[in-house]
Design a protein that fits this description.
The protein has six helices and six strands. By secondary structure, it is of the alpha/beta class. The longest helix is centred in the middle third of the chain and has 8 residues. The mean pLDDT is 87.
């Protein structure tokens, strides 16, 4: 496993044995050199569209990002709690819609971020979120 970060401090704290100080916009790796790339909560922190660059270095790439149009996110905004792209999450600088993500692959929902997860999972089991990404709080791109 190789960890990358643009921040030397974060990279040192990461716990990865192999670490590369670089930007996700210009990865210093050859095409398809990794079997699998896991980009968890990364793409919403970078203004540029980095999906093609991250996908370039992996034979398979999976992305996890907040869904700006989820009902829970919209409710949080209406109640004044702030949504994914508010001052409560100042590092979030780019929102990907499900339609935009579908240009790159399959999009699935995830239960991550749903409050009182056990309660909601009794009503909406995990496979519900996978099948209905528009209702999911976070989304996977595969």
């Amino acid at each position: 496993m190789v960890g990358i970060d643009i921040s030397k401090k974060n990279l040192e704290l990461s716990g990865y044995k192999l670490r590369v100080l670089c930007s996700a916009t210009h990865l210093p790796f050859r095409d398809k050199c990794f079997d699998f790339v896991w980009a968890c909560a990364i793409i919403e922190h970078i203004k540029e569209d980095v999906i093609p660059e991250i996908s370039r270095v992996g034979k398979c790439a999976v992305f996890l990002t907040p869904n700006p149009n989820s009902p829970l996110n919209i409710l949080n905004k209406l109640l004044g709690r702030g949504g994914w792209f508010s001052s409560k999450h100042p590092g979030h600088v780019r929102a990907y819609s499900i339609k935009e993500l579908k240009r790159y692959g399959r999009v699935y929902g995830d239960t991550c971020g749903i409050p009182l997860r056990r309660f909601w999972q009794r009503i909406f089991p995990t496979h519900f979120w996978l099948l209905f990404p528009y209702l999911s709080h976070t989304i996977f791109l595969v």
